Amino acid sequence: MNNTRYSRSRYLRAVQKEKRAVRILQLSIVAGLLFAWEAGTRLGLADAFIVSSPVRMFSMFVTMAGGDLARHVMYTVGETMAGFFLGVAMGFGAAVGLWYSPFAHKVLSPYLVVLNSLPKVALGPVIIVWAGAGISAVITMALAISLIVTIMELTHGFYSTDANMMTTVQSFGAGKWECFKKVVMPYNVPVLFQSLKVNIGLCLVGVITGEFLVSRAGLGYLIVYAGQVFKMDLVMMSVVLLGFIAFLMYSAVSAAEKLAVKIINHI
Amino acid sequence: MFLSVENIGLSYQTAERETMAVKDVSFDVKEGEFVSIVGPSGCGKSTLLSCIAGLTVPTTGQIIFKGRPTDGVREDVGYMLQSDNLMPWRSIYKNVTLGLEIQNKLTAENEAYAQSLLKKYDLWEFKDSYPSRLSGGMRQRAALIRTLAVKPDLLLLDEAFSALDYQTRVNVSRDVYRILRAENKTMVMVTHDIPEAVAMSDRVVVLSKRPSVVQKILTLPFGRRRDPISVRGHGRFQSFFDAVWKEMNI
Ligand SMILES: Nc1ncnc2c1ncn2[C@@H]1O[C@H](COP(=O)(O)OP(=O)(O)OP(=O)(O)O)[C@@H](O)[C@H]1O
Ligand SMILES: [Mg+2]
User: Fold this and answer.
1) How would residue B232 be classed by pLDDT, with cut points 50, 70 and 90?
2) Hey, is B14 helix, strand or coil?
3) CA-CA distance, B175 to B121, in Å (whole number)?
4) Residues of B in contact with A186 (CB under 8 A)
5) How many angstroms separate the most distant Cα atoms in chain B?
6) What residues in B contact A168, CB-CB < 8 Å?
7) DSSP string, A82-95
8) How much is the pLDDT for A5?
9) Where are the domains of chain B?
10) By CB neighbour count within 10 A (0-12 exposed, 13-18 middle, 19+ buried), where does A18 fall?
11) Which of A123, A159, B197, B244 has the highest Cβ tally under 10 A?
12) By C-alpha distance, which of B41, A194, B39, B35 is closest to B52?
């Protein structure tokens, strides 16, 4: 008994230690890259006007933060969230429909395959004409990029639900809808969150593409504008900020997943 | 008759071909009786059981249970498949009450019955655990209690023990035997395992190769109060094993 306690505490300590080592290394890589970047431009290995530098980016950030950076960030974040939630809701609804009706699934799956492989950016001009040049076009672009993937992944997950579990609930007299609630949905929680995680990234791609094409605000617009007037500090800062936003959103989905698993385990 | 299987035949239709799985199978089961169905692999045992459960509609013939023809899933018949199929996201208690939930029968009385089964069959202390924490044998017991909780009169077991290792399998089949006898149930089970069939049942229905017909029905003399493990040492056990084996290999 003492012995197992001992090995348990040793195991826990080793896990802790490894976790810390991973964190430290991750931070060191970022710090190292930033340092090399800064040093490279200072030593004249690269032109800071072309490649920018961490210090120049930071001072640009400070300048912009006093200005309308917050507004641009809000636009991008807002559009991404709108695209994300709309995409999830519509994608989920469509996938449930395609699961509920195998006939509809048979009819529609070639369309899904074609739409999925179509480069959605090609729809840009169409979207602008149809949705108008503004937020709605940006959100439509985000949807165009993320929706089909969501539908396909969820539908595939729903159809791959364990057949014996389905038979088990059916043997208790469960109808199709009950099968969905009792088995298909909980069985596919990991699939759902996997697709949400992919979705966040795809929505950001869509939003930035949309902002490139039409917008007057948002980080995508800022990047295009700064590129045209050759403000590389602003371009790079916006890109880094974008990476940060993507990271935060991904973390939010991960946190939601942990919560959902906990909830589903207690209903 | 409690359960009558009358001239059941079933052909599966697929794009490539028609497969006649069951040709013509008839037998009766008395109330409280334990009947095993054995037969060569792929001869249509699962198909037949699924028809009795009302999950599959036979091409010909009919099932009459308690005087009423079966035309779909019915609440007085419980069905257990291979492996326990417990839902990993539900606690043992929530798994056990799944059938009650689906049938909208989560009354205080029914829950009390489910709880009494958990207590009686040594799973009470695990009621809040998740299936992954339980051993294979315990999981199988939990699955049986899930089936019993809706109070079926007839239990259908399709290779219910075949996912277990040998020792657990023999022990679980004894548990199941005792539980079902104690709860006064009628059972029809499908198995590959001839000793298991002989040890657990009052009669063994031997099916022929696909498309199956009844090859032979053997009546076993071991009685209700046997122990399904020690009966394997009974003087006449081997002769019944041989008889089933012979019929299966004709
Ligand atoms: N859904 C189906 N569609 C087409 N053919 C099927 C289907 N299910 C079973 N079959 C075929 O019907 C025959 C009987 O199958 P069944 O599963 O009832 O046999 P079994 O006796 O239970 O087999 P096993 O001993 O392997 O459990 C087999 O030849 C099988 O290939
Ligand atoms: Mg089978």
Assistant:
1) very high
2) coil
3) 9
4) 87, 89
5) 53
6) 79, 81, 85
7) HHHHHHHHHHHHHH
8) 67
9) 1-73+186-250
10) exposed
11) B197
12) B35
* pLDDT, tens only, A66-92: 888 999 999 999 999 999 999 999 999
ipTM: 0.89
CATH superfamily of A57-266: MetI-like (1.10.3720.10)
| Amino acid at the residue B9 | G
**Considering Cα of B99, then B102, then B106, then B109, what sign does the dihedral take?**
negative
Sequence-distant (6+) residues with CB within 8 A of A61 are A69, A237, A241
Domain positions in chain A? 1-46, 57-266
Is CATH 3.30.70.920 the right assignment for the domain spanning B1-73+186-250?
no
CB A169 within 8 A of CB A183: yes
- Residue B16 corresponds to which tokens in the numbers above? 């490539």
| Span from the CA of A60 to the centroid of ligand 1 (angstroms) | 71
Mean pLDDT, chain B, whole residue set: 93
CB of B7 closer than 8 Å to CB of B60: yes
C-alpha to C-alpha distance for B218 and B34, rounded to whole angstroms? 12
Confirm or reject contact between A171 and chain B (CB < 8 A): yes
Task: Indicate the pTM of the whole model.
Answer: 0.87
- The Cα A86–Cα A141 span in angstroms is 12
Q: Is B59 exposed, middle or buried (0-12, 13-18, 19+ CB in 10 A)?
A: middle
